[in-house]
Every structure is written in C-alpha cells, then in structure tokens.
Amino acid sequence: MIQHLYVHIPFCHRICPYCSFYKHQHGSTDMAGFVEAVLAEAQREQAARADRLDLRSVYLGGGTPTALSEKHMERLLSGLREIFDLSQVTEYTSEVNPRTITASKAAMMLSQGLTRISLGIQAWDEATLKTLGRDHAPADAEETYRLLRNAGFSSVSLDLMFSIPGQSLDAWRGTLERTIALQPDHISAYNLNYEEDTEFFQRLRKGQYREDEGRDAEFFYLALDLLEAAGYQHYEISNYARPGFRSAHNESYWLGEEYLGLGPSAYSTIGVQRWQNIPDTAAYMQLIQTGQPTAQPGEELTEDRRRTERFGLELRTVRGLPASLIQPDQQRMLTTLESEGLLTLRDGHIILTRHGKPLVDSIAVALMG
Predict the structure, then answer these.
(1) Domain residue ranges of the chain, discontinuous segments joined by +
(2) Are 282 and 27 in contact (CB under 8 A)?
(3) In whole angstroms, what is the distance from residue 122 CA to residue 161 CA?
(4) How many Å apart are CA 117 and CA 96, to the nearest integer?
(5) Which of 203, 222, 281, 320 would you call most buried, defined as having the most Cβ atoms within 10 angstroms of its Cβ?
C-alpha cells in the first residue's frame, strides 16, 4: 500500500549555493496555474491508484513550500484534502524558511490539517548564514519559531548544518546550545555535502573549499553529545527527536516503503518501479495541461538494487541493518568491524557504535563487499 505522499514546491526567494534540490525563483511562473497543475496531477494519480492509497503521512518540500502566498497555499491544501482521503494521516509536514510565513498563513495551515513543521534554520550566527547564502538573520529565525509555536503547532523540527566553510567548532556549539534552549521537538543536524551542480561543489573543485573527515567527526560528536545530554534520541545519523517525535515520513524512506511524489522533479517509488517527474516547472505544467505523462523513464528496483539501498539507509538508523543481509563471504569483515568497536550485534541487527556512526558510508560499502 502507498502510505506516504510527497509534494514538491520548487520556488525559492534566493538560491542557496549548497543546495542540489530542484528549485528556482518563481520569476514569471503563473503560481495559481502551478497549484492547479499539482492538483490535476493529484487527481490523476488518485484515480489511477485509489485501491492502493492508504495515506498515513504527507510532506510538502522544496524549494520552499511557504514561498506560495497564503491564498495559493490554501488552495493547494484544500485541494489535496478534497482529492485524497487524509483521515488516517497522523503526520502532515511542511518545510518552512524564516521570513516566508505569517501568523495568518500559519493559522490557515494548521486549520487545513498540518501537524508538523520543519524549519530551515541551518545556523544561528551571522557569518555562517552569510556563507550559506541564507536571506534571514538569527532574529528572523527565532521570531518564526515562536510564531509557529504560538499558532499551535505541537511538533516543530529545526534543521541545522555543520562543517560549513569558515564555521568554527565554537560557532557550531553556539548553534546547538541556542537550538536546545528553544526546545524544539526534533532536530536535524546535517553534515554539509558538496553536491554536483552547486556553487559549493565548483568552489571545492577549485580548491577554495576542502573536505576534512576529521573535522566532520568533531562536529558530529559535539552534536551527538550535546543533543543526547539534552534528552534527544539519536534515531538516525542526522536526526534527533524527543520521545514520540520522530519523523514518520522520513523513516518511511529509510525503511524502503512505497511513496507517491507530486510536482516537478518529485520521485515516486511504487512496487518495483521508481521514477522522477520532469525537473522543469514550465514543462511540467504544459504536460499536465495537455494531459501527457509528467514522469521521465524510470528504473526497476532489482533485488540487488534494493539490497544496496538497505545497506545505505537502514545502517543509518537506531534499529540497524538485519544481519541476515550479510553474505557468507562478508562475515569476516563483519567480525573485524565488531572487534574494532565500530558496530555491535543486537536482536539480529547490526547497530553502529558511537565510533562507527561517523563512518556509516564506508562501513556500508565494506559490509556489502
């Protein structure tokens, strides 16, 4: 059954130099027309898959969903409620950037059934925010957080980043301490990755920026220590939550569950098929208007592909990777990594230790053989 829905809204007021997701400034885009295109795709998918839809989570991502005006956001949310049965949805999330939401818009979103907000803070110091190309100040971020709390959202997550060029360990400590003081329900702490097709990647290639695994580990351990001491459960390499506030939608990805994606560039995984909508907003809208498919040629998820993905995703979680997935010729590697204190076996699962967590990607490769 398809229990998870993702809606991609690609608009941003400013393009961040580190972000590789499909996004753009709205420019001359007909925003009302865009919303109607997404709803038309939703109607088409609902009609085609009604017998397999049993939605339990919905996630609006981007881009910046709240770059939509209150009027257009309300039309999108009300339209989704009319098209899909959302009565069993227990987690309904929207990403929010500071300075893109008002008290009125927040109240409307709550009234339309949203239960959870993921607020993109990234950092609390001006210098790091400037490096990241963010268009908000720390005061804007705190004001937005309090606005969301005052609106009545009982589940708010803050997104942070570390190992940013020029960011000191003290600055990262300050970001963590200020975040903890606000007492969000969930915290995502991402190690900066240099993704192709970004300005940061180009600067890395030119030698202006550099990667440093030792520095990454220092930042990672500081987050781990401070957040766990503050009562947050480290349930995935980059994610921490107070008891009862894990992200059900994101956990569905890590566990390989089916999901339906709407909007330009959105991915869907249903059965053994995965595909992506065309990453071009104007072309996407034109295809919808003319009744043509929006999906690009997809891929079949073979057993080998699923196994590879399970190593890359489940090993990141607190539950761990089923030990039964280890091939006989990799048992010696498993024993070696355990003896080195990088992982442990518990209840039939491979669980990374404190020392193993920063090395999750290399450990996954080693165990796959």
Answers:
(1) 2-254, 303-368
(2) no
(3) 5
(4) 7
(5) 281
Protein fold of 303-368? Arc Repressor Mutant, subunit A (1.10.10)
| 95 within 8 A of 62, measured Cβ to Cβ | yes
Give the separation between CA 272 and CA 342, rounded to whole angstroms. 33
Q: Phi and psi for 201 in degrees, rounded to 5?
A: -65, -40
pLDDT digits (tens, 9 = 90+) for 13-36: 888 999 999 898 988 899 999 999
Q: How far is CA 337 from CA 55, 325, 353, in A?
A: 39, 16, 10
Q: What is the 3-state secondary structure (H, E, C) of the chain?
A: CEEEEEEEECECCCCCCCCCCCCECCCCCCHHHHHHHHHHHHHHHHHHHHHHEEEEEEEEEECCHHHCCHHHHHHHHHHHHHHCCCCCCCEEEEEECCCCCCHHHHHHHHHCCCCEEEEEEECCCHHHHHHCCCCCCHHHHHHHHHHHHHHCCCEEEEEEEECCCCCCHHHHHHHHHHHHHHCCCEEEEEECCCCCCCHHHHHHHCCCCCCCHHHHHHHHHHHHHHHHHCCCEEEECCEEECCCCCCHHHHHHHCCCCEEEECCCCEEEECCEEEEECCCHHHHHHHHHCCCCCECCCEECCHHHHHHHHHHHHCCECCCEEHHHCCHHHHHHHHHHHHCCCEEEECCEEEECCCCHHHHHHHHHHHHC
Structure tokens at 183: 């007492």
- pLDDT tens digits for range 156-199: 999 999 999 999 999 999 999 999 999 999 999 999 999 988 99
How far from each other are the two terminal CA atoms of the chain, in whole angstroms? 32
Written as six digits, the tokens of 212 are: 């440093």
What is the rounded distance in angstroms from the CA atom of residue 276 to the CA atom of residue 143? 36
Q: What is the pTM of this model?
A: 0.95
Tokens of 227: 């957040």
Six token digits for residue 16: 């961040």
Could you tell me the two tokens for 29?
């885009």
Radius of gyration in angstroms for the set of CA atoms belonging to the chain, rounded to a whole number = 21
Cβ atoms of residues 93 and 117 within 8 Å: yes
Q: CATH 3.40.50.1390: does it fit domain 2-254?
A: no
